[in-house]
Amino acid sequence: MNPTTTSVPLATGLPAKFVWGVATASYQIEGAHDEDGRTPSIWDTFSRVPGAVVGADNGDVACDHYHRMPQDVALMKGLGVDSYRFSVAWPRVQPGGRGPVNPAGLGFYERLVDELLENGIAPWVTLYHWDLPQELEDAGGWPHRDTAYRFADYAMLVFDALGDRVDTFTTLNEPWCSAWLGYNVGVHAPGRKDFDASLAATHHLLLGHGLATQRMRAAETRPHNYGITLNMGTADPHGDTEADRDAARRADGMGLRLYLDPLRKGAYPADMVEDLAARGSALPVQDGDLEIISTPIDTLGVNFYFGQDFAGTDEQGRTQDANGEPIVRSVLPDTARTAMGWPITPERFTQLLVRLHRDYPGLPMVITENGAAFDDQPDATGYVADDDRTEYLASHIAAVAAAREQGADVRGYFAWSLLDNFEWAEGYAKRFGIVHVNYETQERTPKQSALWFRDSIAALRA
Ligand code: FCB
């Protein structure tokens, strides 16, 4: 790898023992969709629905990481990261989502963990990053209570095999996306559009998290670090009006408090329960569920991309939609945008972390994802001089340092993502990697942002 050429100053203000990493997810990089006994997940099915994914792309091949894993670990070693956050594909390890372990599928993760450890990189396992076995969706999916128990069984298959070598287990990645985008908005797998189903999915995802955490902890013979990763932003009122303040309250409730309150306080937020009741909906809570969901965890994984404002009126000034529901309209801050159209709001990252520290105290945080897609222009060698992404990373890492100065207990930062990869409904069109992937040849080329990240880590440790 080359020296970095960017004029963006290296990161400062973080301690030598801060954890630096890169993150990926199984369906986004592995490919090998039908090898060694893997069965389809909801993303294999959804990506074949016409119009569901830009370019009709799918994860059949992706970055071919399943066959290029040692080379990808070598890339990480070259960057000098402490840790690699990857996810395990449930349908590889337990085809169909029930029954015994599939040794061939599990073997891939055994080899990955060993390769990482041999290279001095700590494996950070996410058990579920959205690839639900299709058979479990056919049986009702996350809106169906039994799925939570199936998840805990699967978690134990992974834990029993890897718990001797892996210290950190994250149960779920971004349950809001699974529940809301997958079951209410329908833009992610499985593509359903049913508000009550998405509420039930939320509760059963959290229940699955609690059940899995309790079972792993009960089975351990040495301490592990357990947690969950949530995607969070900030929800500020667009204007100084009662309607906008109420819209911000609702957005924050559905996006953040609906998850963190049961996890940390053992109760769903009273105002959200009231709002839901007003529209005839309720979370399907049974006796004892909230004790399970609020079982102690060790780390909160924070995924941050941008913050936004909310208005309680639509563009015509109406306060209710056609169904009589209150308007909660996202208004993106007036800043530069990434290729996703997402505003670049590092100061709101600091705001979020300080607020989490205040409202949910006593829980160490790790940034498990942060990064940006831009329209990269590779040169003839595949090198991308991505000043935009480098600046995004620099400003958001500085935002983490600022939050720590205000007391937020943030202990690590994982860049999303190691590689350009399958960006869900956006297919391969959106590139988040700090390493460029040529999808024709599968050649990997570290971008300038990767070199800046490498040099920053080295400088902070020096
Ligand atoms: C997050 C996902 C991750 C990636 C980034 C851009 O919501 O967890 O897989 O797609 O967004």
Distinctive features:
binds beta-D-fucopyranose; 462 residues; 14% strand; alpha/beta; 40% helix
Strand content: 5-15%
Structural class: alpha/beta
Average residue-wise pLDDT:
98
Number of helices: 15
Biggest sheet record: 8 strands, parallel, barrel
Tell me about this structure:
- This protein has 462 residues and is α/β, with parallel strands linked by helices.
- Helices cover 40% and strands 14% of the residues.
- The strands form three sheets. Strands 1-2-3-4-5-7-10-11 form an eight-stranded parallel barrel, surrounded by six helices. Strands 6-8-9 form a three-stranded mixed β-sheet, with helices on one face.
- Helix 14 links the parallel strand 10 and strand 11 (410-416).
- Helix 3 (65-79) runs parallel beside helix 5 (103-118), helix 8 runs antiparallel to helix 9 and helix 13 (346-359) packs parallel to helix 14.
- Residues 25, 28, 173-174, 177, 231, 303, 369, 416, 423-424, 432 line the site of beta-D-fucopyranose.
